[in-house]
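Below: protein 1.
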Amino acid sequence: MKIPFEKGAEYTKEIVARMGRAGTVGERSLGYPDAGAGAHALGVIFTEIAGSLK
């Protein structure tokens, strides 16, 4: 089961990149998830795990 921020990170595969380095490839970015969204999702997961260990 995917949690909302994982779904959001996966959804970026369907969006054409317009900003950052990926913005230079335009339409060719379709089908690839945004690395920043994936990294943010991992950060949220690790923060939640750390919080539950306290």
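Below: protein 2.
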Amino acid sequence: MRDTNLELQESGWEELRKEARKIEGDLDVKLSSYAKLGARFTQGGSGYVDSGSPPIGSSRSWKSMEMEIQSLLEKLLDINDSMSRCAASAGPATSVTQKLARHRDILHEFTQEFRRIKGNINSMREHAELLSSVRDDITDFKEVCHQGCSYYVRELPSMEIYLI
């Protein structure tokens, strides 16, 4: 009876580990793609907004990718919790606790990396939006000045009478 219980725990542990490794691989790919999107912001020195052109990638695709990564991180956290319960019921096996610790470290590293990339992207987006806003203000100012100058140019002939 004890052997059957132990076998069930071991098979459950292995299934959880297999699922954790799969999600870790998926997270690695998604974080890499997310980082590449973030790197596009800094290419060319002008950010991701070029005058008159829309940002690279829609806001929806950014949010979609963030939500996918967040969901995978939550799944990995749940699996790690299940692995902890499985390891606790199996007893103090050194190799199991070491493997569990490694999976926790990987989750922590992925979480930190996601936060770092997300912060960088948000910072770059805010910077690009600020530059775009300033660019729009300059364009508006030039239009107002041009309209004002053209008014005075049109009125100049009628003002010459008073100057003589």
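The helical segments are 2-42, 59-90, 94-163.
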